[in-house]
Amino acid sequence: MFYSAGIFHRRSIKEIHALWKRGSTVPILKRLTRFGSMNLLVSSGVSVAYFSSIALLALAAVQPRSPDGQGDQSTYFDSVVLLTMFLLIGRYLESYSKARTADAISSLALLKPAEAYLLTASDEWSGSSVSSSEGLTAVPMTAKGAVAFKIENIPADMLELGDIVRVPHGSSPPADGMMVSGTSGVFDESSLTGESEPVRKETGDKVYVGTINRGDVVHVSVVDISGTTMLDNIMEVVREGQTRRAPMERIADIVTSYFVPVVTLLAISTWIIWLALGESGKLSADVLGNLSGGWPVWSLEFAIAVFVVACPCGIGLAAPTALLVGSGLAAKYGLLARGGGEAFQEASRLDIVVFDKTGTITTGKLQVSDVKYVTNSWNEETILGIIDEMEIVIGNEYWMQENSVQISLELRDLADSWKNEAKSVVFVAAQRDAQWEVLAIFGVADLIRPEASNVISLLIKAGIETWMISGDNEKTALAVAAAVGIPSSNVIAGVLPQEKAQRIQWLQRGRPVLPFTGTEMPSNHFVVGMVGDGINDAPALTSADVGIAIGSGSDVAISSASFILLSADLNGLLNLIDLSKAVIRRIKFNFLWAAIYNIAAIPIAAGVIYPAGRVRLDPVWASLAMALSSVSVISSSLLLKLYKPPKKT
């Protein structure tokens, strides 16, 4: 009673003290109508059973022995013991199940190698080839030739920046680093990005902890030590996201805050009703048997059962457990939920998805596809020769206008033709005799991601509007939009970073006024998701209800987002939306199940079905029912682990 159930008593006392301590600002009415938690319900039920048993034991001690010689069996000490046992078992299963929900994150931690093969310079090398079995290896590190290194096996946590480590075939780099030797390598990055295809790495490319070397032995220079690697950042982001609560979770808080006073009132009312029925003769006296204490004690069993079975543990676990499982699944499929429960809830009801153009719909890898030198006197050699001697201006048409550079009609026509081909146009101008003159014009093409068109098509089929926003010129933006299936009316081009945020807010308001038309439209809040990758997307990502950053993008964009797609593949967006809907559906189901469970169990515990066949819910079985309520909700959440991403067709 006092030791095993002490955890419930201590927490209940703290809750009551915090509510009624001197200086509390909580209004008196609120203290009487919203107080306590599940701990107070459990503590109350156990305490009532225990102290009523003490009273019954004292009462039995002063009463004459029964004529049949049988002792009185009216105490609840066994109920107290079994009740506490079931409650603690339920708490243990709850803790164990919560730990299981983080398996996907824990498995990421297991990907970190415990040891590293450190290469240190060796004075023993004479220039001849040395086999690796002797502990020495020759690595081509400089232009002058190979340098001898000795291999040492050390704990990975002892690595420092700049250390050179050996990564054999089939192993993982012990820290994030740059490849410094070996012609090339092939790494399996599926554990981080969800991409099943191995990625080829060349000297100078970055490799990450948790990825697997599927090629030949490579050597890596450490650039991020333990605690700052990409894998560490992923685990930290997921942990932070799991602590952020969804609006749905506030429902559980509100329900629980009113639950204790309501259940207390129900339990007292139950005791009074059964006591009144017994004392008034409505019930047969033979139901008492040899129970000492009469109708007051007999009625008390109903009240204790109500106290115990009414614990809203299932309601309190409905959202957190599903979100924990959802976060783990997201990490498994290359998604990081920085925004936690609120981000999942918003992503499940997206109305509009806005794409940045460069680096999101396109690959962001620009290539010069066309070039035209304006006059014969300005050729490539001439331009390169005067760059260090003359002030030049490089940029688009708007930047040329800002610097008072005159563009001929012929060049404008050429630029327009390139824009119609989804190419960006870059002008180069130099100042000659106080006059700015265009030297050359370049057409720059940015390849469209191969999956972009299919992803946008599936979003439209799902009833989600797709928009594109870009700082590029309107013709180029329209050409890209047409190529991937975004309507021309849903393209916003030529905007600055801060204007992107304003346009996101405009979409959230339901586009109350169409640009340049003044046409009024209904004003409703639309849930808007923004997908971007650059620093210039950060204001829009922050303003959107759901900011989604491409993992290959800038740190500023990633820190502004609710979700991070570790892979640049836009199919991850479809997985994100579908997983969010699955998580929210599971939360709603958990709430419904827990509510139905409690609504059905409380009347049974109160004795509603007792008159039909003298069937009552003993306090011990009430505690078991309460524990099963929590376990059933947790099991429901764990079923999310069976989730599979939708087919991309």
UniProtKB/TrEMBL annotation:
**Entry's PROSITE patterns?**
ATPASE_E1_E2 (PS00154)
Gene Ontology MF annotations:
ATP binding; ATP hydrolysis activity; copper ion binding; P-type divalent copper transporter activity
Subcellular localization, per the record?
Answer: Membrane
Q: Which GO terms describe its cellular component?
A: membrane
Does this entry carry the keyword Glycoprotein?
no
Pfam families referenced in this protein's UniProt entry, alphabetically: E1-E2_ATPase (PF00122), Hydrolase (PF00702)
UniProt keyword list: Membrane, Metal-binding, Translocase, Transmembrane, Transmembrane helix
The biological processes this protein is annotated with in GO are:
copper ion homeostasis
Q: Where is the P-type ATPase A domain?
A: 150-238
Q: Does the keyword Transmembrane apply?
A: yes
Top-rank taxon of the source lineage equals Eukaryota
* Record-annotated membrane-spanning stretches: 40-62, 74-93, 254-277, 297-325, 591-613, 619-640
Q: To which protein family does this belong?
A: Belongs to the cation transport ATPase (P-type) (TC 3.A.3) family. Type IB subfamily.
This one is known as Heavy metal translocatin
Query: Which species is listed as the source?
Result: Lentinula edodes (Shiitake mushroom)
